[in-house]
Write a structure and sequence with these properties.
about 180 residues, alpha+beta, Jelly Rolls, 6-stranded antiparallel sheet, 5-stranded mixed sheet, about 20% helix, about 45% strand, elongated
């Protein structure tokens, strides 16, 4: 089943054309694991603002988490993240000078996902600045609408049963004469 899902996701990558500037993140499953994981990275050679876009395809709805960090190629290169988003949702960024970190966890639908990294690079000639990150996906973390309806209906039946049981309790009065 997992191999079929991965094959469909791989086929969808080719069927859905990503923008020319976007790099594709390949999500892979470890043997015996229910999660998909992929890595992304970028190198910035020139000082100034930059934007890097990454895309990946999810086979079904679930929970996606991602993290990003600056990678010191040399102490002469530095990246300051101005924003990092996954499907328009902002990462929680921790600016910390030379090394920065960011993370996010959110519910995602199946299909094409977009991760955008914006920042300012400070480099010197011959030195680069870099960042890298990981995306992790767990399927089935979001109940389908039909499942929500069944859960709500079930809670309603349980509540109704408890209420009717409370109303039909036998009351006994004792009179001692």
């Amino acid at each position: 089943m997992k191999k079929l899902a991965l094959a469909l996701a791989g086929g969808a990558v080719f069927a859905v054309a990503a923008p020319a500037s976007a790099a594709t993140i390949v999500l892979e499953s470890d043997e015996g694991s229910d999660t998909l994981t992929g890595e992304f990275a970028g190198t910035v050679r020139n000082s100034g603002p930059f934007t890097r876009e990454f895309t990946f395809v999810l086979p079904e709805a679930g929970r996606t988490a991602a993290s990003i960090t600056t990678a010191a190629v040399s102490m002469a290169g530095n990246i300051d993240f101005t924003s990092v988003t996954l499907n328009g949702q902002n990462f929680n960024l921790t600016p910390n000078g030379q090394f920065e970190f960011g993370s996010i966890a959110l519910n995602t639908d199946s299909g094409l996902q977009t991760l955008i990294v914006n920042g300012i690079a400070q480099t010197t000639p011959g030195n680069n600045a870099a960042f890298s990150g990981v995306v992790t996906f767990a399927a089935g973390a979001i109940p389908e609408p039909g499942m929500w309806a069944l859960m709500i209906l079930g809670f309603g039946f349980v509540g109704g049963a408890l209420r009717s049981r409370r109303n039909s309790s036998v009351k006994t009065n004792f009179d001692f004469a």
